[in-house]
Amino acid sequence: MTPFTFEGEEDERSLKHAAKGAGVNLLNRLELQGFKSFAGKTVFEFPAKVVGVVGPNGSGKSNIIDAIRWVLGEREAKQLRGEGLESLIFAGTPKKAAVGFARVDMILDNKNKVFPVDAEEVVISRRVDRSGTSEFSLNESEIKLKDLLPLLARIRLGARGIMIVGQGQSDIFVMSSPKERREMIEEFLGLREFRIKKSQAERRLDSSLINIDKIKAMLEELAPQVRVFQKQKTRLEKRSEIEVELTTLENSYYSFKYSGFSEELKKIAAPLAELQSERNSLEEKVKEEEKTLNTLYKNDDEYARVKEIRVKANAAIEAESLKQRELSRVETKIEIQKEAPQYIHKPAEFEEFIVSLRTGIEKILELDNLAEIKSRLKAIVGNVQSFFSKKEAKEDVDLEKERERLAQEVSVLKTEVEKLRREEDEVSKKTRDTNIEFREKVGRLNEKKNERYALDRQIQALILQRETIEIKKEELEREWASLGKAVEDLRNLKPDANLDEGTLRQLASRMMRLRGELTAIGEIDQSVFGEFEESEKRFEFLSAQLADLEKASADLKILIKDLDARIKNDFKTSFKAISDAFNEYFRLMFGGGKARLILEEPSFAKASEGETDIADVAFGAGTAKGETIEGKEEELGVAIDLNLPRKKITGVSMLSGGEKTLVSLAALFALISISPPPFLVLDEIDAPLDEENARRFSELIKQFADKTQFIIVTHNRSTMEATEVLYGVTMGEDGVSKVLSLKLE
Ligand code: ATP
Questions:
Q1: Other residues' Cβ atoms within 10 Å of the Cβ of residue 419
Q2: Ligand 1 site, residue 219, Cβ cutoff 6 A
Q3: Would 685 disulfide with which of 55, 170, 236, 462, CB 3.0-4.6 Å?
């Protein structure tokens, strides 16, 4: 069986239809099996508007009323005249064995679709077995009582109240409390459905509010953790943002510079190669000249001397050239430092320094002593100054000293070369005089040598230039590597064509600033993020739940308010008419007098029913004390105010048993006249009535039969006469109730 759940919305049309009776019998059939004295399956058809049940005492008539109450959801054993669920199951007699379960099926007409199911008939069933398991079903689908009750309330069926009046309850309206009377009236007006919905909504609201408190407490516990996490996360996000920007800037900056150096090197390569090949061919010529000169050379001593000087000169030139290169390297370094002061410190050193600064400042923040704070701050200022000047000064001084030393050595070597050249010239001059040819040759040789010297100078200048660029390039690679990047990447980077020297400077200062910001943010320990994230997820989940619950609570509050308003308004609208009708039926039954219903606060109820004089109290919205209690109507009870003809009776407590029944019947018929229910079940309600009143009762039953279906248990002849279908219930020797249908003509 699939559990039945009600999801349909209220259909005003069919509700009204059901409410007015509209000539259609709602109750089609009642089937009892194993219920109390009905051991076997017993079927009651209700094809008429007034169905009577008659039979001797103890035959089982009231058990039928119990069955109706039970199938409609009654839970109290007392109301079912039993003790626990088991007492509802046929207990067995000496002649008839007990049964294992009791079942009652109530078959209702659904042609007007008063139930939100697509069937012409609706079967409400309840079953209990000896294990105590009790279950409801609607058209054979299991349904929970809490789902069934609102459905029944929609068509104004309930197990209690004045619609099912049990044996000995004929004075029920009079004997009930003001609050219970109000509930009876509400049931007739179809407001019980809204009461059920309201109390369900209130229960849901209560549990929502409890859950809201619980979730709020959990959220409060999580909040500090989540705040810390969010702060860390913001820092991490900021850090990543900066890192991304920094990488882009570094790529642009370094690739631009790197490609610039590569371009410059390319430009030098061709002229240098040209000069070198020119020098090589010149060198050949010099060697040739020297060869011919050697053959002409007569004076061996002089030749040896020239040769010796030349060797020395060459060595000096070579040494000078080497020193010159060294000098250039140092000069390039000095130049680089001047050009790029931002690289005085490597990024790592810079970060280390900033971290030490931060730690120092944090420690100062913990101090209270102003003098101490001042002295520590001074120390920090000193540290900052020395940090930025120290390295610059130290490295500059070292490099400057080196440069001076090398320049000195180069100059010494230059002087040495000059001196040797002069010496060579002098020795050569002596031989020139003696040999013109020799002189000419020496002249040509010297010319060539001078040319070679000039070429050497040019070549050296270019080599120097090349080395300078190479050093710069290497320095750039070192810097790049110090950022933790692969040099290979730098080589492969494509330079940004839109950059120029101006924008490059801006890039450099932006990079500096970003590095400073990164250091200020500091390192973030990402290993704690997993735990934090868990808390944050939970926080978000709980927040969403809280929002849902708050929304649900707000909706429930609105629903409760709407239901309240509806109950209040509907009640107010009909109350005066019911009270007037009550007066009318009261007068009919008592042959005069006056009666009315009054709304009053529970504490006044008793007093008014005993004391208030009918003439003093205004009808309608007034209370027994003549006050208007706005917005509290639902708490107001219903008091009865009456004035019997020819008697000085002012309170219901003074009435006789029969009179109490008459007042209750007046209320019952007043309610039927204003809002006829689909059916009424009355068990010997006419018992206390005298003949005349019993006749009047049966007349009223006939009068209302076109609006409401009546199921009446009676011993009274005039009531029997009012019925269209009559069932006789008997109990044989076997202790089992039997039913025979007595059609009346
Ligand atoms: P009266 O006219 O006197 O009110 P009644 O016809 O309404 O009588 P009921 O009260 O319906 O009679 O029936 C009472 C009978 O039902 C009793 O004989 C009682 O023993 C029998 N009865 C009640 N419960 C069970 C049960 N669980 N098993 C067997 N019989 C039961």
A1: 14
A2: no
A3: 170
